[in-house]
From TrEMBL:
<comment type="similarity">
    <text>Belongs to the NDK family.</text>
</comment>
<feature type="binding site">
    <location>
        <position position="57"/>
    </location>
    <ligand>
        <name>ATP</name>
    </ligand>
</feature>
<keyword id="KW-0963">Cytoplasm</keyword>
<feature type="active site" description="Pros-phosphohistidine intermediate">
    <location>
        <position position="115"/>
    </location>
</feature>
<dbReference type="InterPro" id="IPR023005">
    <property type="entry name" value="Nucleoside_diP_kinase_AS"/>
</dbReference>
<keyword id="KW-0418">Kinase</keyword>
<protein>
    <recommendedName>
        <fullName>Nucleoside diphosphate kinase</fullName>
        <ecNumber>2.7.4.6</ecNumber>
    </recommendedName>
</protein>
<dbReference type="InterPro" id="IPR034907">
    <property type="entry name" value="NDK-like_dom"/>
</dbReference>
<dbReference type="InterPro" id="IPR036850">
    <property type="entry name" value="NDK-like_dom_sf"/>
</dbReference>
<dbReference type="Pfam" id="PF00334">
    <property type="entry name" value="NDK"/>
</dbReference>
<keyword id="KW-0067">ATP-binding</keyword>
<keyword id="KW-0460">Magnesium</keyword>
<keyword id="KW-0547">Nucleotide-binding</keyword>
<keyword id="KW-0597">Phosphoprotein</keyword>
<feature type="binding site">
    <location>
        <position position="91"/>
    </location>
    <ligand>
        <name>ATP</name>
    </ligand>
</feature>
<keyword id="KW-0479">Metal-binding</keyword>
<keyword id="KW-0546">Nucleotide metabolism</keyword>
Amino acid sequence: MEKTFVMVKPDGVQRNLVGDIVARFERKGFKLAGAKLMSIPTALAEEHYGEHKEKPFFGELVDFITSGPVFAMVWEGDNVIANARQMMGKTNPSEAMPGTIRGDYGLTVGKNVVHGSDSPESAEREIGLFFQQEEVL
Ligand code: ATP
Ligand code: MG
């Protein structure tokens, strides 16, 4: 069964949005396969966002994602990778549709509440970065 990596970012945890975001995925019908509250070490943040290393916002991105606890999750289900991206909405919350997580809760592209893997390759890579095999049920 397809799996994806979803993470409530530090702004979402601080604003007490973990429960709402978990509930959206549960109600949709996806199965929770792994979850933990954690602080991201700088090296892990740099590896996770490695594709953006050359971007001007890379430093800010790493600073932000390591600024407080995140809630890391693995969700499972048919087409969950693409579906999770749809449920999250566009990267820039000001362009994200109402009804999506970013559309409902975000204001700026830097603090956009949630992360979700963008492809099967990313999902496998990111689950492996954040979870030990035995933590994914
Ligand atoms: P994520 O990878 O966090 O799920 P995404 O896949 O929708 O988001 P990416 O293009 O991978 O978007 O960008 C990663 C993150 O970098 C975004 O979530 C956002 O917080 C930040 N980011 C993207 N573009 C910008 C920008 N122009 N200025 C500042 N931050 C940005
Ligand atoms: Mg991305």
